[in-house]
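User: Some background: our group keeps a shared notebook of sequences we're curious about, and every so often someone picks one and asks for a predicted structure to add to the entry. Today it's my turn. The entry only has the sequence so far, pasted here. Could you supply the structure so I can complete it?
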Amino acid sequence: MVDNVRTGSRNIKLGQFLKENEQMFLDIWEKQIIVHNNEDSAELIRKNGYLMYRIITNSIVNNLSEDELKLLANKVAQERADANVNIGEFVYNVNLGRSIIIKYVNQSGIPMEELHPIIDLINRQFDLFCYYAVSSYTEIKDKQIQEKNLFIRQSHKDRLAILGQMSSSFVHEFRNPLTSIMGFISLLKSEHPSLPYLTIISSELEQLNFRITQFLHTSKMKLVSDSKEEVISIKILLEEVVDFLYPSLLDGNIEVTTNIDENAKVMGDRNELKQVILNLLINAIDAVYEEENTRKITIRTKMDNDQVTIFISNNGPAINADEANIIFEPFYTTKKLGTGIGLFVCKNIVEKHNGMIQCLSQDDETTFEIKFPRV
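Assistant: Of course. Here's the predicted structure to add to the notebook entry:
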């Protein structure tokens, strides 16, 4: 009982000492704190320092709970975040105040052995105050970053939607005369099979039609013929695309190696899946053109119990890890004349077919791996 009375008396005496020296403490502290003239309010910092000093004083005298301390910490954190000021200066200013208070507590005239519990209490209150303030500040900043990222993503989607509407309108208008031209070229080929250059013209028109289809997929506009699903043989599909690209492969002196399982079959839209393979092989052809030695493209499949995996590899320049993570984003391209929509379209089509596509690149080989559910 006597110890409790002595402890209470000591705490009251120290609390009175701190109240009497309050103004002196704040003056000394204010001269040493870090203040950003453009963002900080010196008056507000002093006011918060005064509140913290009062909380410490009341903690010593009345054994105060943490609630008031936490409220002040959250208030300061919000103010620092709103001012866009680094939390480091706040932590420095708080610990400066701690040092000054402890210095004057040691000059209170109370024996040192009696001061130890009080100094422990002061340190604990300051530690809690810093913890709550920094935690709250971090949460506020994280929320601000999330809100900014959400705004950026939404703005990006809005721009894509506008671009999609514009491009789809233009592409549809462009496709009508193209279809007529392709039809008349077919008639010319049947009536005059020996007429030169018709095959080249037809091939170039097919490439142009392919690019138009890419834009239509990017704008999420569907054609009537784009809604047919069937069981597709991957072997036949891949062979059709390789045959179509044969002139480009021959012209580039590109060696193509295939190892395709005849039983590899998937359910999907033939035109869309053909577009994925065609786009990946065109990219592979473009990549190996930069290779001075033997130019190689490898196509193989792997069968599991529930999925079919297609590997399309080339020995062109490696794709670094950062690029491999973003090459499927719309309008990102490493080609000088690229549109940046080819791989974006591939990803959308593959995911529409409940599949997955990824890029794996090493120094000697780059592989695009496509997985589909097996039929």
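Suggested note for the entry: The first strand starts at residue 230 and ends at 233. The two ends are 84 Å apart (CA to CA).
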